Amino acid sequence: MTTLSELTAAVRAPxxxxxxxxxxxxxxxxxxxxxxxxxxxGADVIIxxxxxxxxxxxxxxxxxxDSAVVDATDPAxxxxxxxxxPATIDHVMxxxxxxxxxxxxxxxxxRAIREFDEHLWLAITVAKNAVGRVRAGGTLxxxxxxxxxxxxxxxxxxxxxxxxxxxxxxxLALEIAPVRVNLIAAGFVDTPLSASLLGDDxxxxxxxxxxxxxxxxxxxxxxxxxxxxxxxxxxxxxxSTYDIDGGQQLLGSER
Length: 255
Hints:
This protein is about 45% helix and about 15% strand. The mean pLDDT is about 90. By secondary structure, the chain is α/β, with parallel strands linked by helices. The chain has a single domain (about 15-245), classed as Rossmann fold (3-Layer(aba) Sandwich). It is built from 9 helices and 7 strands; from the N terminus they run αβαβαβαβαβαβαααβ.
């Protein structure tokens, strides 16, 4: 049984001290914030991304142990990245990829396949490369969304990925145990990706969410980071999907 003094000491101590956290997509947004929080909790961080300049700036700001330019959708590039990692790492988070919304008539087949690869095959490729490198009890952590759970025009492809990833993560958790595998499913998060998708409608969307979400504020990347680090630390968590949307799904058609 844990005593109060032991619990107090544990809370005060950095929760990831001496551990190595790898963040694919760690140069901005949710990935960067997770790397930043992991550093604050005592971890060494290694970040990967596509944009060399942004990656270099992020690595300097984080005091990252290392960084690498990686095309996460290319299995060869991803495999080479894992080959260069330390022999044993503790946690891998991937935020690579984004939603693709398009009506059926406008669906770009090539882009649709690429986006689908980023969401599904990326998780499989990361898991294959993680075997023998991520320690027992360490974490693989992936990102998905909650928005496409409710049918809507232009969300057919996104809905498939939204439904498939939780099932994939649950199976991977059995397949590569005792490495733990989990999924964070987010609602709207105020990131550069959201800004690029919404353009001039960004401020309107922020105000709408502040007025309607039960939490009365917009979810920030730091909220995702806090959940991600908790999942890394809590070794009882595996095979699960963790929603973080500020109550957005409770609003139904009004969201």
